[in-house]
Amino acid sequence: MLKTVSCRENRPALQHARARRRPVCRAAAQTPHSLAEELQAARDTYRSLAEAARVETSLDLRQTDGVSAGLGLAATRPHAKNEVLMRVPRSAAIVLDYDRGLSMPPARWPRLRGGASSSIDPLPWDILQALALVDGLAGDGGEFWARYCDVLLPAPERLTLPMCWEPQRLAQLQHRDIATAAEAQQDRLMGLFPELMEPLAPDVPSWFQWAFACVRSRAFRAGPDAFAFVPFLDLANHADAPQAVPPGPSGASGGAATPAPPSNQVANADFRASPAGAGSGEAGAGEYFELYALRDIVAGEEVTISYAGPEGYTNQRFMAQYGFVPVGGNAADRVKLELTPEMQSAPLDLEVLQELLGDALFMSALRGTDPYLTAALKSLPLVDGGGSNGVKAATAGSVRTAQALLQQVEAQIAEGTTTLEADEALLGGAEGRALAEADPRQAAAVAYRVERKRLLDKTAALLRAYARR
């Protein structure tokens, strides 16, 4: 993501090391000229660091739009399916392999090494890699990582992961569950390294939160027990997994084919690690991480990967881990419902719901062409009542289940302090684009609650119709 123009210097206190200083600005409007200059500076840094790290690639940086707007990778020439788009030496990455140990470029890395050698409880991989990024930003991981952290990773004030937000901003999500989880993550980090958790400003996270958020949203699993922060590969943005088939509602029968989404909404690349021990010499020498094409890619096309895999993630996980949600519905999203034993013994009849919806809407749910309806149905306890002739009657028990579930959904709708219409207006047109640039965190919060309200409204409508049956 592009950083904002400096409006003041904030000097975080990092113990035992010189910290590289990055400007922090709470709200700064950028002119098109300054944005273009900053993009060019990022592109120049990307190219020079890639050359220094001996990265083989024909991809370049570009500014992107969409759910994960910011910086992304684009093809500079056509590529054929299975062609390697980028190859990053393992020696340039920060790798934690529980079988082979730590691997990173030669440098001091004092916080990482100290955390890895702690005689107390072993620190998990994500905390260790966060310590590595703090080292990198402070200049203790070598010049390459100092420049990479300073220029090519997002600025703290533009991070859209809720665990980087203060309580007032968390309230903008209008969802207590995700806010509580974010606060628990903050408490966890504070308990581990309180000296690294000083906020850079009242509404800007600490450097440790910044580092942990970058790890959460950008690191890769590089093996069964191996995790890697791979420079340059981490710049690939998200798109749907290829051939992802949203499963029909539980209990649904039939084999309706799922139409493929537009190609620009589907990931066109994936990553892989070379076999362990490839090459010769010191540990990790000759090994690499690759980004390769899943289909033909034309020049100028953005190169994307799927963060979620074929099964998808809920919006709450997308927001918590990556700081954005898919716009326009997510068939893998779910409404959280508490099911009592009585509800489980009296689920809703799928055949009744099919009659209520009509064949066209019901098939759109099976195919995933109405992702809100698919997600709503998948959130409910359902049973296929079997093929009956004539109008299907809902059992008294299933009607009571629908009524009880409707109360839960309406309670979640009541968490909202703004209307869906007002939120949609904030994100629409030129006003929405201006909000995304001026305050990406607020834009992300509004997008999250828009998608949640749409799903809750769809679920409530289904339950009301069923309860009246």
UniProtKB/TrEMBL annotation:
Protein name (record): SET domain-containing protein
Molecular function via GO: protein-lysine N-methyltransferase activity
Record keywords, A-Z: Methyltransferase, S-adenosyl-L-methionine, Transferase
Gene3D superfamilies membership: Rubisco LSMT, substrate-binding domain, set domain protein methyltransferase, domain 1
SET domain mapped to chain residues: 57-308
The keyword RNA-binding is annotated on this UniProt entry: no
InterPro entries: Rubisco_LSMT_subst-bd_sf, SET_dom, SET_dom_sf, SETD3_SETD6_MTase
Keyword check for Nucleotide-binding: no
Region (Disordered): 241-278
